[in-house]
């Protein structure tokens, strides 16, 4: 009976998947010297220099306090800086941060290749998109 509860519980299976994929991502991003979350934040800044903290939170689905903490730690490492314009805090990469861009993209590609080798590239992409859609549905249940 417990086996059925576990296999049919979205909470349990999603957490199990999270642990497995987090380990893979941490392994692949280790070469960058950053955790995957920091690397994804940097990827968003590469995409849009001068991005607001609010927009970063929306893109990464993180609370404002979490985004602030991540930016502060990246600033201490000398990878980003923020410029305040009015009430907005805009985030930019430093030269040191820009120098990591290629490495971070390689890490991301290696992660996708790693789980793609196990699941198949198409299935990995489909699963990612489906999980994103389901997350949106559950998050926007109101």
Automatic annotation (TrEMBL):
According to the entry, every stretch annotated as the HTH marR-type domain falls at: 7-136
Q: Name one GO molecular function term.
A: DNA binding
- Positions the record marks as coiled coil are none
Keyword terms of this UniProt record: DNA-binding, Transcription, Transcription regulation
Query: SMART domains of this UniProt entry?
Result: HTH_MARR
Please, which domain of life does this record's source organism belong to? Bacteria
The protein's matches in PANTHER family, at most eight in alphabetical order, are given as: TRANSCRIPTIONAL REGULATOR, MARR, TRANSCRIPTIONAL REPRESSOR OF EMRAB OPERON
Protein name, as recorded: MarR family transcriptional regulator
> Upper lineage ranks?
Bacteria, Bacillati, Bacillota, Bacilli, Bacillales
